Amino acid sequence: MATTNHISTKWLGNMAFESNNPSGHNFKIDIAKEDGGDGSGFRPKALMLSSLAGCSGLDVASLMKKMKLEVDKFHIETIANLTDEHPRYYDSVVIEYHFHGSNLKEEKLQKAVDLSIEKYCGVMEMFRRFAELEIKTIFHSK
């Protein structure tokens, strides 16, 4: 049976909206003051990049736990290029996985990243439909 997500998004006035999430948390969406908003919430296109990094990050964190890998810090940098013509969309995205630690098992961490991007991350698969993706894994050893 197919899974369905149902999200409700309500207008708060001016250019702001509040959207719910199946987690039970709500968040605000708005645009910049120079574009007519109040700058009081998340921007829709940028949220897509957070979703991409969050989805893949959860995969990698889960695999790091399963593989018992020691990592002091882990962060993902997502750098996307917006097209010039409307409707503007991301046509290319660079995703950098940064691992920090003194005992990094680089081969296993790379396997965790590869499993996420090739097999597990559904948001990554969605992005593949409209953008060119470049993946970088960067190890910061102490």
From TrEMBL:
<keyword id="KW-0560">Oxidoreductase</keyword>
<dbReference type="InterPro" id="IPR015946">
    <property type="entry name" value="KH_dom-like_a/b"/>
</dbReference>
<keyword id="KW-0575">Peroxidase</keyword>
<dbReference type="Pfam" id="PF02566">
    <property type="entry name" value="OsmC"/>
</dbReference>
<dbReference type="InterPro" id="IPR003718">
    <property type="entry name" value="OsmC/Ohr_fam"/>
</dbReference>
<protein>
    <submittedName>
        <fullName>OsmC family protein</fullName>
        <ecNumber>1.11.1.-</ecNumber>
    </submittedName>
</protein>
<dbReference type="GO" id="GO:0004601">
    <property type="term" value="F:peroxidase activity"/>
</dbReference>
<dbReference type="InterPro" id="IPR036102">
    <property type="entry name" value="OsmC/Ohrsf"/>
</dbReference>
